[in-house]
Amino acid sequence: MPWRRGRVMLGTAEGRTAMREADDAHLVLLGRFELLAGCGDVTLPKGAQRLLAYLAIHHGDGVSRQAAAEQLWPECRRQRATANVRQALWHLRRATERPVVEPSVDRLRLSPALTVDFCRAVEAAHLVVSSAAPAAEDLTGALSRDLLPYWADDWLAPERRRWEQVRLHALEAIAQHLISAGAHLAALEAAFTAISIDPVRETAHRTVIAAHLAQGNHGSALRHYQQYRALLHRELGVTPSAHMTRLVASQAAL
């Protein structure tokens, strides 16, 4: 599915209003499931929600009906699972004035008229990591949200792991850009968001220390290092890397 570009803010009230005014549909997968179209939220049965989310996350060249059936309803017999896909498609066709899934005999794909916050966030994150573009103003907020956190579907597990790595690398890249720009508070917020996702990730803690040092707050950098060292010892029985230790030692006496 092609991502729609523009200044619409990811996951914000302004973004939702803009999407509605443009008469397009917008799918929210970060933090919750929500389909927005026309003048309000669209109510869908669970099966239709799951199919729409699955197609959004596997947007590429589309997904075969059989693959969707097997992944979404693995506990069902093949005939029943295929019937569930047909029923979900029926609900999706009736849900909005403009179709959110393109009709096809074999492969299913989202309509280009449907934008997805998850897809936009992934695209923006890759651009930030590659330094091809600055971060959108609200990207840190989008990166702080889990992918469909209240769903227990097995097929989501590997997608959540991929999303975790994307957001961690992007948040650290954002923090580094902000340190270079002298925006130290915003850099710390991005780095601490990464730490909230993976509390023992050294690169995120190293970024916090770098932000403190850039401000000249050597004591804060040393205190954070000591807290991280204690966390690693308590949780994993290991110590910070020599690189991290040298980073702090070069600025403060340990």
From TrEMBL:
Domain Bacterial transcriptional activator residue range list: 116-252
Gene3D superfamilies: Tetratricopeptide repeat domain, Winged helix-like DNA-binding domain superfamily/Winged helix DNA-binding domain
Pfam families listed in its UniProt record: BTAD
InterPro entries linked: AfsR-DnrI-RedD_regulator, BTAD, Sig_transdc_resp-reg_C-effctor, TPR-like_helical_dom_sf, WH-like_DNA-bd_sf
Domain of life of the native organism: Bacteria
Protein name in UniProt: BTAD domain-containing putative transcriptional regulator
Organism, as annotated: Lentzea sokolovensis
